[in-house]
Predict the 3D structure of the following.
Amino acid sequence: TVQRFDLGIKLQGTSDGLWQDLRVSNCARGIDLLGDSAAAGDGLGAEVANIQINGGSVSLCTQYGMLVKFVDLPARELTVNSFSFVSNVGPALNLVGVRRATFNGCNWTGNTASLSISDGIDANYADLNTTDTITFNGGQFDGGTLTFNQTCARITFRGCEFKNCDFILSVPTNEIILID
């Protein structure tokens, strides 16, 4: 368990990782998974690719729970299974320019903003930093907002339950699909 830090976990590029029962709590910013070359620093960053998280939670974070972001390299092929996002302020899950992410049986409870999906903002990478193919299978969203902005290509919710949620569609250019 990682708890009571300004930033719980930051990975500036990572690949082929498997995390079991990952728990982050009481941080300002919970988990950062960044596709980032670290060009302004040591240049040793990398893309985020082929990551699997099985079980665990991010809870009670005051800025956001989990951020997965294309900075200047891809953030792709993320699979999250049976993970809980609980009582976070700001987006519990914030996906920025992510491609091919799947969330199976995950739960969002008591967050002010449960989900935010948008493209990256750097125009130099406009052909690479659009959000594409995000799938939610099962699971429950209980409370909070779900915000969709910009491309949002192939965003699909299959068999998810929504309670007391507000959907905010900030001009997504593609449909958001909900399948019962």
Notes: The CA atoms of residues 148 and 162 lie 16 Å apart. The first strand starts at residue 2 and ends at 3. The chain has a mean pLDDT of 95.
